[in-house]
Automatic annotation (TrEMBL):
Organism: Pseudomonas cuatrocienegasensis
PANTHER family: 2,3-DIKETO-L-GULONATE TRAP TRANSPORTER SMALL PERMEASE PROTEIN YIAM (PTHR35011), TRAP TRANSPORTER SMALL PERMEASE PROTEIN (PTHR35011:SF10)
Main location: membrane
Organismal lineage: Bacteria, Pseudomonadati, Pseudomonadota, Gammaproteobacteria, Pseudomonadales
Coiled-coil residues: none
Top-level taxon of the source organism: Bacteria
Subcellular compartments: Cell inner membrane
InterPro entries: DctQ (IPR055348), TRAP_DctQ (IPR007387)
Protein name in UniProt: TRAP transporter small permease protein
Physiological role: Part of the tripartite ATP-independent periplasmic (TRAP) transport system.
Length: 158
């Protein structure tokens, strides 16, 4: 895969999230084994990192044409390939638009209410703001891949 069809920022975020999840989970297991107690913050951080991992990984998958898509209709009706690709893009953008809207609204409300996380007492918007940011990354990567497919730069099957 060439660098022009890559998502380097999202790859780095996903990798960091996976490394952090692994390290704090391992540390928690070791501490629990030796002391019969555990770190209280590990679940909160792990869930947050899992959201980052999921959205960043989905963004990479979209850019690399590895996302789940039903290509059956494209193969069945090759003359409708372009309208079907545009329909896929439109439906996906609708869903991502909802994620952006409601995720952004939720992040703004968390910021306004100054709510704090239960485990560490950090502002909740620190966790939630990543939802619309990475949703936007996904929309950009989806649009890039759609243009590549329409221009014939990328095959329809991953």
């Amino acid at each position: 895969m060439t660098t022009e069809t890559d998502a380097p920022l999202e790859r780095v975020l996903a990798t960091l999230a996976l490394v952090i999840i692994s390290l704090i989970s391992l540390a928690n297991v070791v501490v629990r084994y030796f002391t019969n107690a555990s770190f209280a913050f590990t679940e909160e951080i792990s869930v947050f990192m899992l959201v980052i991992l999921t959205f960043a990984g989905a963004s990479v998958a979209l850019r690399r044409n590895r996302h789940i898509r039903i290509g059956f209709l494209e193969r069945l009706f090759p003359r409708l390939r372009t309208p079907l690709i545009l329909l896929q893009w439109l439906a996906s953008m609708l869903v991502l638009g909802l994620v952006l809207w409601f995720g952004g609204q939720f992040a703004w409300e968390e910021y306004q209410w100054q709510s704090e996380s239960p485990g560490l007492g950090l502002p909740n918007w620190w966790y939630v703001v990543w939802l619309p940011i990475l949703g936007l990354c996904m929309a950009v990567r989806l649009s890039q891949m759609t243009l590549d497919r329409l221009r014939g730069r990328v095959g329809d099957e991953p």
